[in-house]
Design goal:
The chain is mainly beta. The chain has five helices and 29 strands. Strands 4, 5, 6, 7, 10, 11, 12, 13 and 14 form a nine-stranded antiparallel sheet that branches. The two termini are 28 Å apart.
């Protein structure tokens, strides 16, 4: 064995020289890769940026908002219509049968996470006295359509006929019943005035509550029976809200709100970036920016304090999507989400509400790695040209279905803009592999 050992070692070296499967090329061996962070300042990767507003309507949010001097400034009221056919048939059914209406209640459901109050607040309901359009109603206008504009008799929804008021305590649940007298109930369900609908108001100053849904319950007594029965409810439709004042023009970048704002950014990445001594010891510097070297690419934004009335009460999401035709903004079509998880759910940056309060400013990162891969390659994975323009927008996403809608909230996200302290930058994580020759 001792005499055979040298022959075995020589044979092994010959095999290794002829076939080294782990080497990058013949006569070389791989070395430990080097990972480094590169921060591209705004001027080195952005060619243009703008903030564009007017996307979506309040009724598309599918939840209402009520507020009374929230943040010292914001007032909001929720409007609802009632099911026209079912409301009339319920009343007619009660009158035609041996039953008597003894009262009713308006059942409201709220979103505690989207509301500002920690304790009890007073909420009222009234029947409006004016026709209004759910798609276009604002604080000033009951109707704002191509056919014409109709102002409210009084701004903020006109006058209402009071129906009832009650106190909602979030510690007792997410629902509130406001009871009506029989005469008030019949007024609400009057089929000749269903177009007027109802208005929900916040009576407690300084608070904001998000309204999820509403329905009318009818309580009736059957002849000869002592118990009171509850008839199937009449659900509220055309849920929308109006608010005042409108936010002022953005001082930096803005995302979200109702109608929604988008921040649109066009990019042009450099061909090379500076390397570290460790990376430059492996490959030629400056480092060529290639897709295989990019492990992560995030757009880093710095939050700013919002206008007081538009402070978020819940966390917000900011997503990035490609913009295919920025020259026709605001009608440019959006591409698919830039980043999804393994379940196909759109990913973005989750922003805590405190990030937009005075003194709570912080940095957040929006993932755009797939887009940056395509930009440095010049084409997408399917071979199509890559759009260098993205839109930052705020979406309300369903965690179960993964579907998202815009707008997401009356509150919006504010960020430092170009040339301002905390202006955005692009954070890249690069992995550099090298090789060394065999002696």
């Amino acid at each position: 064995m001792l005499r055979l050992l040298p022959l075995f070692m020589v044979a092994t070296l010959v095999v290794c020289q002829n076939d080294t499967p782990t080497a990058l090329d013949e006569g070389s061996l791989p070395v430990e890769p080097v990972t480094l962070e590169v921060r591209l300042p705004w001027s080195q990767f952005v060619t243009s940026a703008q903030v564009v507003g007017g996307f979506g309507r309040a009724d598309e949010l599918r939840v209402g908002t009520i507020a009374n001097a929230f943040g010292g400034t914001l007032n909001a009221r929720t409007l609802m219509h009632l099911e026209s056919e079912t409301s009339g048939s319920r009343v007619a059914g009660v009158r035609d049968s041996q039953t008597t209406i003894v009262g009713g209640a308006f059942l409201l459901r709220f979103n505690p996470d989207g509301s500002s109050n920690q304790g009890p607040v007073s909420v009222s309901v009234g029947r409006t006295s004016t026709h209004w359009d759910a798609r276009s109603a604002t604080w000033q206008l009951a109707v704002d359509s191509l056919d014409g504009k109709e102002e409210w008799p009084e701004q903020g929804g006109g006058s209402v006929r009071p129906l009832g008021e009650a106190v909602w305590d979030p510690l007792q649940g997410d629902s509130l019943e406001i009871f009506f007298s029989p005469s008030a109930l019949l007024t609400v369900l009057d089929t000749t005035a269903l177009e007027f609908g109802v208005r929900v108001d916040m009576e407690t100053p300084g608070e904001l509550v998000q309204v999820v849904s509403g329905e009318i319950q009818i309580f009736a007594k059957v002849e000869g029976v002592d118990t009171v029965v509850t008839m199937p409810p009449a659900h509220a439709t055309d849920l929308t809200f109006i608010y005042d004042p409108a936010p002022g023009p953005p001082e930096g970048f803005r995302v979200g709100g109702v109608p929604a704002w988008r921040t649109v950014i066009s990019m042009a990445l450099p061909a090379t970036v500076a390397g570290t001594p460790e990376a430059c010891a492996l490959v030629t510097c400056p480092l060529a920016l290639t897709a295989e070297r990019i492990s992560l690419a995030n757009l880093v934004l710095s939050t700013r304090a919002n206008e007081p009335g538009f402070q978020p009460t819940d966390s917000l999401l900011v997503h990035a999507r490609s913009l295919f035709a920025p020259e026709v903004l605001p009608k440019s079509p959006l591409g698919p989400p830039i980043f999804r998880d393994d379940l196909g759910i759109t990913l973005g940056a989750t922003l805590a509400s405190a990030a937009f309060a005075p003194g709570g400013e912080r940095s957040i990162e929006v993932p755009i790695t797939p887009l940056v891969w395509d930009l440095v390659q010049g084409t997408t994975g399917s071979g199509a040209s890559t759009s260098p323009t993205i839109a930052l927008l705020s979406l309300n996403c369903n965690p179960v279905s993964g579907s998202c809608v815009e707008p997401a909230s009356v509150a919006f996200s504010s960020f430092a803009g170009a040339g301002q302290p905390g202006e955005p930058f692009l954070r890249l994580i690069l992995t550099i592999s090298g090789q060394v020759g065999l002696p």
